[in-house]
Amino acid sequence: xxxxxxxxxxxxxxxxxxxxxxxxxxxxxxxxxxxxxxxxxxxxxxxxxxxxxxxxxxxxxxxxxxxxxxxxxxxxxxxxxxxxxxxxxxxxxxxxxxxxxxxxxxxxxxxxxxxxxxxxxxxxxxxxxxxxxxxxxxxxxxxxxxxxxxxxxxxxxxxxxxxxxxxxxxxxxxxxxxxxxxxxxxxxxxxxxxxxxxxxxxxxxxxxxxxxxxxxxxxxxxxxxxxxxxxxxxxxxxxxxxxxxxxxxxxxxxxxxxxxxxxxxxxxxxxxxxxxxxxxxxxxxxxxxxxxxxxxxxxxxxxxxxxxxxxxxxxxxxxxxxxxxxxxxxxxxxxxxxxxxxxxxxxxxxxxxxxxxxxxxxxxxxxxxxxxxxxxxxxxxxxxxxxxxxxxxxxxxxxxxxxxxxxxxxxxxxxxxxxxxxxxxxxxxxxxxxxxx
Length: 437
Prior knowledge:
The chain is of the alpha/beta class and 437 residues long. It folds into two domains: 37-150 and 315-355, Periplasmic binding protein-like II (D-Maltodextrin-Binding Protein, domain 2); 153-312 and 389-435, 3-Layer(aba) Sandwich (D-Maltodextrin-Binding Protein, domain 2). It has helices at residues 3-35, 48-64, 80-89, 101-109, 117-121, 132-135, 160-166, 177-190, 204-213, 232-247, 253-256, 284-291, 327-339, 341-347, 357-365, 369-383, 396-412, 418-435; strands at residues 38-45, 68-75, 96-99, 139-140, 143-144, 147-148, 151-158, 196-199, 273-280, 296-298, 312-314, 317-320.
């Protein structure tokens, strides 16, 4: 064999070996990819706008992490906690669940949520760009059970163009409950038939705010009983709504009850009311989207001589199920959701003001009109806020349902007096809290 052919033969042999090795490596890599396949389930509540944005972020994450598949489950607020309770009872909670502050203690207390501290320590969950004030709400007994995915504050939404049309001065920070009633009545009188001043609030969220203004809270410190002693507080709070319904300042229940908690169907969307009470600031995005026009956020009414009622609230959390076999991978997705600027450009602070500093500054600089209003409102609310109260105790979900079904709705329809509602609520709520301890 000539020297030339010797080299050619050697080259061909080496090429074959390289191809074989490459094929082997490729097969090995395929095997590794296959063995590392991760399947996660994720559950959240919200509007259609939230669903669309979240699904797009999930697609982005799966594109960047092709070994991960995330199955989405989502619904409106109505029925969400019933669905969660059913899944929890069956030992079938999704890996990642959207959690609310008022339910956090209950789910953590039942051992249903994973402590995420180990994933902070391993860097699977990166909260290095997050201030403690945004983290603390998810901690119970030194365990991190939930990651805040957007800060917000209790608010009302107003259509200032309707105020102007009615010749009514807009609401300003510091306005009182009496001023709300007066302006809502004037709006109803001046805006024509079947248009009303206010979509009223008589729910537990508004009552909690009213109690804070009296320096009290719905629950006692140990969560075994109601935290306020004087039922006149609930009577007075409900009487505000009764007065507005009777005077025509508030829309009758058949105007707003069909919408339930679907903000995109609130009567303000169709210019049937100029005000909607008791929403969270992050909901402005979905309400404006549904209305197709500019709306504004405003503080809740103040109590003359009272305490500050507002606080900065973890809008929603993500928690990881204790039963999940993929806790670390779930933590990695939450980390992405928190820190990715590209993901948060898609989300557009729809769940509330982002907690990561770099993300927050980026979005504020590039915010849409609705996003800018939300950022500015949270800053305003912070000026009128004091410390957040502890998470609601176990049994709070039953208390919420009790309040909605036997206080709020009967008041809307005039089926009970405020005194009857307050007395009934105390009796039944006390029984629930005592039983659940």
